[in-house]
Amino acid sequence: MPVASRTSHTCLDILSGRSNMALAGRGLGMTRRSLTRGYATSQKKTKTLARAAQPNTPVAPTKGPSPAPVNTAKKASAKTSSQGMVEAMRKEQAAQQKKDALEKQKENTEEQDAAAHTDYMNRVSKQAPSLDLWSQAEMDVLDLAVPVRNQAPWGLRGARWYWDNLREATKSAMAIMQLTNGGAFPPLYSEPHHPYGEGKSAPPTQAPAEFKLWKPSHISQALKFHSAAPGAWGAGIPTLSLSLYKQMCQAIAENDKETIVQVTASQQREILLKSLSGRSSDIVYKWKFVKENSPTRIVSLRGGPAYTAKLDAPLNRCITQALVRFDTVQSFEAFNKRTRQTISEPTSRRVVEYFVVEKKGWTWMPWVIRQRIYDTSTLSEPTEKKIEARGLLGRLKFWQ
């Protein structure tokens, strides 16, 4: 075995020392790099924590996926909006509670007022039995109607004409039944100034105390409600109505407001008094009734019980409303009383008018003319202005 020389051993030692130094240098470098990286990482963590503690400080962009930013302003606004919603709900609840309390208080007040009013009405009714506070309001005119004229006897129009007139006649016949059962028919025996009291004609036939549907005579009387024959139950109404009509026309011509107040009521009274208030005092009107062109008759009748309080012996609880047709010939003239100049020559002309006459059976007031009804069936444009000129009031307005 060959023996190595001393020189070779020295070279080997040198080489091994160098390798050991290189290894030590590598280890030292690795240690330095690891320490540097750990320090940098710790610094980054410290900076990140500091920036998180300060939300307004922008975070520098880093490599890799960045975490989602936290919008603190949105959180604050959401918190504020939720608080506002809660406050709004509380205000709404408080307002609703206040509204409910006011409504309940109002209902209680109305109930108390109604109870006090009812107690007052009952107390007054007991103290004055003949005074009916429950029916002091003016009653409206009932569904009285002028009969439709037959323009087309065949076809649909003829059937409509037949049906309308049949329905109107049935309503009037039912009114006869109700008025008879209420003790209001015939309605003229308690009138102190009706024409029969003056001996001008015989009184009508006395009606029974009760209307019986199984009696043909009662049915016949109900169907001939429009008849002015002496045997008809309603024969006195046309005669009385014509008397009221004459008084009203004469009072209009003479500007007699007192008579107008006596023979008219409600709407008709207001219209006449208003028209007379603006009349010139220099013009004099003269009106004259010439004759009846055709008999005055009832064309529609309504009535029935309408009173609830205690009654005197001869009175009844029914209201009677009759639509009466006046077909007359009248004469009218006008002149100036200062100059004696004739404004309108006295001429006779035919006048057809419809008026509602009314009688309240629970009062001692006489029959009155309540309202004028216009016949618009023959006009192409049914307006009251066109028809109003046909009557006396229209002619008076023309010469004012």
Describe the structure.
- Residues 1-8 and 379-389 have low confidence and may be disordered.
- The radius of gyration is 53 Å and the shape is elongated.
- The chain contains nine helices and four strands.
- With 400 residues, the protein is of the alpha+beta class.
Concise account of the structure shown:
Helices cover 48% and strands 17% of the residues.
- Spatial order of the strands forming the largest sheet: 1-2-3-4
**CATH architectural name of one domain:** Roll
Can you count the beta strands? 4
Q: What's the Cα radius of gyration?
A: 53 Å
Reported for the largest beta sheet, the result is: 4 strands, antiparallel
The name CATH uses for the topology of one domain is Nuclear Transport Factor 2, Chain: A
Average pLDDT level: 73
Give the helices and strands as they follow along the chain: HHHHHHHEEEEHH
List the keywords:
alpha+beta; Nuclear Transport Factor 2, Chain: A; four-stranded antiparallel beta sheet; 9 helices; 4 strands; disordered N terminus; mitochondrion; transit peptide; mtLSU_mL45
Outline the secondary-structure elements.
Blueprint lengths: L5 H48 L18 H56 L27 H27 L34 H8 L12 H19 L2 H7 L2 H12 L5 E23 L12 E19 L5 E19 L7 E6 L10 H5 L3 H8 L1
Helix pairs in contact: 3-4, 5-6
Keywords: Mitochondrion, Transit peptide
Protein name: Tim44-like domain-containing protein
Main location: mitochondrion
